[in-house]
Amino acid sequence: MFVKVHTGAIAGIDAVSVTAEVNVSSGGIGLFIVGLPDNTIKESHERIQAAFENSGYKLLAKKTVVNLAPADLRKEGSQYDLAIAVGILIATEQLTTSMLEESMFIGELSLNGRLRPIKGVLPLVAMARAKGLKRVFMPEENISEGAVVEGIECVAIGSLTELCEILAGRMPYTPAENIIAQSEEGNEDIYREDFADVKGQHLVKRALEIAAAGGHNVIMVGAPGSGKTMLARRMPSILPPMTLEEALETTKVHSVAGKIGAHKGLITERPFRAPHHLTSQVALIGGGQSPQPGEVSLANNGVLFLDEMPEFGRSVLEVLRQPLEDKHITISRARYSVDYPANFTLIASMNPCPCGYYNHPTKECSCSAATVHRYMSHISGPLMDRIDIHIEVVPVSIADMSSEERGETSREIRERVVRARNIQLRRFEGLDIHCNAMMNSSMLRHFAPLSKECSALLEVAMARLNLSARAYDRIIKVARTIADLDSKESIEPSHISEAIGFRSLDRESWGR
Q1: Among 55, 20, 27, which residue's Cα sits nearest to residue 41?
Q2: Which residue, 153, 233, 422, 481, is most buried by CB atoms nearer than 10 A?
Q3: Are 271 and 301 in contact (CB under 8 A)?
């Protein structure tokens, strides 16, 4: 008997339709799985056999061939167990159902017949809806994730026996309610960290507000204990609330990576990823034998924080150049390639020198000028060129530390950021960019023209401060964002002046 069962495979952060074709014949004995399965799928024979025995079914002594079509697509993972098991039960006439054609089955079988959670449920359910299917049967632990998708029934299954009772019509089922959290309603209060907790550091907070408003990357340079990590961890709390589209994309990435915990649905909090400096290239950028999203993709629509940036391997840092520019990463293999989104804000921090006290107001630096220069050169020019804002973080004074005055809350700062982002959305309507940091040179001339006064001021600053040539466009981009925060149509000299102050590391006198 021949049976077809709907299931799916993960491709990047999306899914493709896969059909488990099951044919049972009397011309031999054994279970044969074909269609480019990996070892996990090949081992499903033993899992299915044990699950059948513990659920009151039998794997008959006949030749059973399972083809995972299309046969030229590499199949990986354990989500095919349930579809194969259902196909075998129907093909061997141990189960009869009228729900097969309009249903998809995903889930891993344990030896006792229970269903275990799998990765990538959200893109699989989205694919099933696009294919026109009516329902998806999935493990109970994945139901909150699957129920994010509207327009399709998501049915939680605890065991193979329970599924068979439902398919046979002997047990009623209740689809999960759709869980769509409209991020437009705001999620200001979901962050534990708040800028109101930060004492002093007004200039740094201003720099991070500008970065959030314009999508700019930031590097903070300061002595140990000056508050760089504390400030960086509060950056997501002032970014604009995620749109529904951003929330779905972020949830897809974490779903494919298996980073969504049980009974968790749509991710509405902007991600904050802080990999250790021993992180490898593959862990940072993604890939591996079976490609998985890396830290740059897990930080999509959020913040990637690199603490003590020079301590990362130079080759590790260099792989950031493409995603910082293109906002996505492509991982290629001999037979296929996958794309992962990587639209993140980079926040980096570093000591100013190996001892940490270069330019410190009270402590003396023990490093020579050559040592400081060599330490700073760990970050290449092309990578530094993609960081718009450089800010020195000075240790907080005792007076500020002991002050009872509470600073601005993240909610107050976010309101200004959202207003500035809305201005940019209107400015770039119809273009494939959404913030000032993404402007190229031609867009810069069109959307951020300079008056004679601004041009003269910038030329003087370039000459007197020995700023490098790459700082020119970056200053204009940041100035455009400052003007947006002030709700100004044109860039004014005060905006240029403030933007110039955020290019500390471009000055040729640094470290000398």
Answers
A1: 20
A2: 481
A3: yes
Tell me the sheet residues that pair with 221.
350, 392
Estimate to the nearest angstrom the gap between the alpha carbon of 152 and the chain centroid.
25
What domains sit in the chain, N to C, each tagged with a CATH number?
A: 2-167 (3.30.230.10), 185-431 (3.40.50.300), 439-512 (1.10.8)
Q: Answer yes or no: are the C-beta atoms of 401 and 199 closer than 8 Å.
A: yes
Nearest-angstrom CA–CA distance, 386 and 449: 21
Specify the pLDDT at position 507. 59
Q: What is the pLDDT of residues 191-220, one digit of tens each?
A: 778 898 888 889 999 999 999 999 999 999
Tokens 């913030």 belong to 435
C-beta separation of 487 from 495 below 8 A: no
Q: Whole-angstrom Cα distance, residue 472 to residue 49?
A: 67
- pLDDT score, position 261: 74
What's the confidence (pLDDT) of residue 152?
Answer: 96
What would the two tokens of residue 44 be?
A: 């499903």
Q: How far is CA 244 from CA 182, 231, 328, 336, 442, in A?
A: 6, 27, 19, 30, 31
Residue 23, classed as helix, strand or coil, is: strand
Given a contact cutoff of 8 angstroms between Cβ atoms, the answer to whether 15 and 48 are in contact is no
Is-contact 293 13, C-beta < 8 A? yes
Write out the H or E segment, with its range, that includes residue 417: helix 410-427
Q: How many CB atoms lie within 10 A of CB 113?
A: 24
Closest C-alpha among 397, 395, 396, 393 to residue 220? 393
Of 390, 70, 53, 336, the residue nearest 221 (C-alpha): 390
pTM of the model as a whole: 0.90
What φ, ψ does residue 203 adopt, rounded to 5°? -65, -40
The length of the chain, given as a count of residues? 512
Q: What is the 3-state secondary structure (H, E, C) of 120-136?
A: CHHHHHHHHHHHCCCEE
Give the Cα separation of 116 and 138 in Å (integer): 9
Angle at the Cα of 421 (from 418 to 422), degrees rounded to 5?
85
Each residue of 117-128: pLDDT tens digit? Answer: 999 999 999 999
Q: Is the pLDDT of residue 249 over 70?
A: yes
Both structure tokens of 382: 């092309």
The helix or strand, by DSSP H or E, that contains position 211, with its residue range, turns out to be helix 202-214
Tens digits of residue pLDDT in 166-197: 999 999 999 999 877 433 344 445 677 889 88
Which ranges of 71-115 would DSSP assign to H, the alpha helix? Answer: 81-91
| Cα angle, residue 232 at apex, residues 319 and 421 outer, rounded to 5° | 85
CA distance 272 to 284: 14
Residue written as token pair 């630096």: 365
Sole residue written with tokens 């059973």 = 64
